[in-house]
Amino acid sequence: MRVTVGSASRGALAGLQADASRLANLQKQITSGRQITKPSDSPTGTVTALQLRSQLKQLHQYQANATDALGWLTTVDSSLHSITSQLQQVRSLVLQGMNTGTGNATSNEALAQQVDQARASLLSLANSSYLGRPVFGGTTAGDVAFDAAGSYVGDTGTVARTVGPNNAIDLNTPGTAAFGANGSNLFDLLKDISANLRTNPSGLGANLQQLDSRQVAITNEQSLAGAKYQRIQSVQNTANTNRVQLKSQLSDLQEIDLADMAIQVTSANAAYQAALATTAKVSQISLLDFLR
Question: Which of 83, 194, 242, 248 could cross-link to 115 by cystine, CB 3.0-4.6 Å?
Answer without folding.
Answer: 194
